[in-house]
Write a structure and sequence with these properties.
2 copies of one chain form a homodimer.
Chain A (H helix, E strand, L loop, with lengths): L2 H9 L6 H12 L7 H14 L2 E3 L12 E3 L1 H12 L6 E3 L1 H7 L6 H24 L7 H38 L2
Helix pairs in contact in A: 1-2, 1-3, 2-3, 6-7
Chain B binds a DNA duplex through helix 2 and helix 3.
DNA sequence: GTGAACATGTAAATTGTTACATGATTAC
DNA sequence: GTAATCATGTAACAATTTACATGTTCAC
């Protein structure tokens, strides 16, 4: 989903700053989307120009903090973007790429990459479990539970088949010598 | 993973054309990466200039088909790229975005989006199951089994909680009226 | 004969990240 | 006092998709 939709979407939960939008996306939706500040600020400026959002602040002059609020125009526009959402899920996985081309690399690297992946998955599981469940919409709850289900399934798969697959790759490499 | 690595990686399994690389990526690795022809051809031209691959053909002059082969330089370079692979998994999901902002849209759209997602997951499951398992490296087998495990878990979650969540979202919207 | 699949290549447009540039506040 | 976090904004750069442009082969 593009940064504009993400910005307007976060603002649909309440007023906040550009920095706040970034934090909200990472914390609540980080499993499914990312947005850097270098993309958020220009997107907010464009949305202000279009009348989709308006500046409420400056809340803190010294901090130059500006808070944005979704306008009716913005809400209507956002509803359109979210309703029209479709298309395949896209997964970019450096780990899976390494595994797909595992026949090329050292067993040490295969091991490292598998261990790193499991560690990353456990870290993400802990992070998701640590998210406070209060003040959440049902939709948000759904995404977090989905993320937890997927992370759990990935961990289970890696624990069940990861080590065996590393051994199989190793054997295959020895056979091909 | 970038298009260059994908191109060299596919060529590590055997000679093929730019078009063939695209097909290979979609068929065997489509769950984890994509590469359009507009990115593949320039990447191949660059790799030829660097001596990482060489042209074997033209195999079919009328069709202007050119087949590429990975050189030793290319193989070494590829090993470096694959070994260095790291970083978080990135998931871009229009469906999850719609669910996250479900409080904004019509129940009809929520329903549609959930149904589309389940249909997409089932299609992907069928596609993955239909992939011939012969002539595959252990690494490739791993990625396909992983993709099947994840797709299965997603289907299970959607079947278990999808409908209930749609109902809960609906109830929440009524309460907020 | 017609549509799908095969085949290559360029260029515009999009979209975003990273780096640069600057400064305040807070907790240790 | 210093590191982390809060806060904004611009610009260079990178990577890729989509559209354009063209032609062949195969199956029905």
């Amino acid at each position: 989903m593009d940064v504009r939709t993400l910005c307007l979407g976060v603002l649909s939960f309440g007023e906040t700053s550009g920095y706040g939008i970034r934090k909200a996306v990472e914390d609540w939706f980080g499993h499914f989307a990312h947005a850097s500040l270098g993309a958020i600020y220009p997107a907010l400026a464009k949305a202000v120009a279009k009348g989709e959002i308006e500046v409420v602040g400056p809340v803190d002059v010294a901090l130059e903090k500006r808070v944005f609020r979704l306008t009716d125009i913005g809400r209507a526009s956002l509803v359109g973007s979210v309703s029209a959402a479709s298309g395949e899920e896209i997964l970019r996985s450096p780990f899976m790429t390494a595994m797909f081309f595992a026949h090329l690399i050292d067993m040490d690297d295969v091991h490292r990459v598998v261990d790193e992946r499991l560690a990353g998955l456990r870290r993400e599981q802990r992070r998701l479990r640590g998210l406070p469940s209060t003040d959440m919409t049902e939709g948000q709850r759904f995404t977090i539970r989905y993320a937890l289900a997927m992370t759990g399934a990935a961990i289970a798969f890696m624990e069940r088949e990861g080590r065996a697959m590393v051994t199989a790759i190793d054997r295959e490499k020895i056979d091909n010598r």
